[in-house]
Amino acid sequence: MQRSETDGKNTPYANAAGGWIFRLLSIAFFSFLISGCTEIDDLRDAYRPRNMREAYEIGLESSGLGDTEMVSLWHQAGSYALNNPVIPSSAHRERGFSDPVLPGASGFEIYLNRGERLVAETAFLAPASGKIFLDLFLDMEAQSLGLRQVAASDSSQHLTFDANRTGRYVLRLQPELLVSGEYQVEFRKTSSVIFPVAGKNSSAIQSRFGEPRDGGRRSHHGVDIFASRRTPVIAAVSGTVSRVQNGGLGGKTVWLRDARSGSSFYYAHLDEQFVRRGQRVLQGDTLGLVGNTGNARTTPPHLHFGIYSNGPIDPYPYVHSPSPKWSRLDVTESNIGTWMRTNVRGAVLRSSPNDRSSRLATLNRFTSVRAIAGSGSFYRVVLPDGATGYISDTMLESALLPIGEIVLTESRALQSDPTVASASVGVQLAGNRILVNGRFGDFLRVQTESGQTGWLQDAP
At what angle do helices 52-62 and 19-47 cross, to 10 degrees? Predict the structure, then answer.
């Protein structure tokens, strides 16, 4: 991918990070990155890091880089991503860009039901290479505990997490420092156990958890999975058979205790049982056959499947495995990682990459944004004030070509960001010709005759 020099190191964000910091630290960082794996391995035994990100952070500290401004900006970007996540689709795939000068991170808000599994993976695309860290946090603000980390990616940059409580989660993605290139990330929700009836899936469920029974005197504590008589019923998890019974409402039943979570899985109305109490079984082993024994004698054959852990739990999220509907990337890839601008008045910044999602803001024409990723026909962008969201590709254009020019009538300070309090990155003298590439608030995003970019306050 070819990029203009004005779209990388010379962005206002890069000025904020400090080009001089980049030059001073490059040699030290690259030395660390080359030897980082060995150093991290040596430190692992001494510090026992909990995950790859923590091992990387220990490596930065031990290399004497922990107190540098570049590392501080990296931590700030990670914290900002956690507190300002976007809301992706349930099966999400996007292409992003890692800027070697400006440390970045992305946060994704995900709602998980108890029993659902989140599967996420990421990697740089050739020729780029490096580590990308995925970390998952549970929102415990209601308990005044903030965000609590519950999972992290492994060395292959995969993350798998089975939710043991329903709630709001935030998935953070952050590349290691000084890596330049495109990456792809995808994640989806799926089942955490295998389906308990051979050859079937959740579409065979015809009676859901919580539905009234006996005229409302009790509720349904499981799901009913309909199948032909004597279809194999299989172990959804590995564990130990705790009970095998015949009689009562369930007729022929099997109770299986999960070796990992301690939950109990209940199989009822079986036509025949193939296991005995105390028997250890592996996930996928046959426990019995579908029938209609017990109080199901007047109904078609089906399996009543329940899960218990300090009371009944809805099994549906445990067994529902929707087919992911990945969006094809329809944006211009060369724009990812560059400055763009809105091309219409009323461009909509949205919470998710679709036209039905919530409106976060409405932007004026020529508003400058930085495209940091693409998903479907939307760019994920960051505004100069840090706000982030998705904008349709039809509402954006490249900022390479100017929208106008001005000739300064007096000397003016070029700012690093579109705020009065931002640092000055130079002075432009009266008579200088300045190209205007966009705007934000009362500031113009400009490019000088020497190619430097920055912000000038718009003349009243």
Answer: 110
- pLDDT, one tens digit for every residue, the chain (460 residues): 444 333 333 333 334 444 434 443 454 554 454 455 555 555 445 557 889 999 999 999 988 888 899 999 999 999 999 999 999 988 999 999 999 988 999 999 999 999 999 999 999 998 888 999 999 999 998 888 999 999 999 989 999 999 999 999 999 999 999 999 999 999 999 999 999 999 999 999 998 887 877 676 778 889 999 999 999 999 999 999 999 999 999 999 999 999 888 999 999 999 999 999 999 999 999 999 999 999 999 999 999 999 999 999 999 999 999 988 887 899 999 999 999 999 999 999 999 999 999 999 999 999 999 999 999 999 999 999 989 999 999 999 999 999 999 999 999 889 999 988 888 888 988 889 999 999 999 999 999 989 999 999 887 6
Contact between residue 440 and residue 367 where contact means Cβ atoms under 8 Å apart = yes
Give the CATH number for residue 374.
2.30.30.40
Question: Looking at the domain assignment, is residue 414 inside a domain?
Answer: yes
Q: How far is CA 364 from the centre of its chain?
A: 29
Structure tokens at 366: 């020529």
Task: State the greatest distance between any 2 C-alpha atoms of the chain, in Å, as a whole number.
Answer: 95
Q: Is 23 contained in some domain?
A: yes
Q: What is the model's pTM?
A: 0.84
- Do 137 and 24 sit in the same domain of this protein? yes
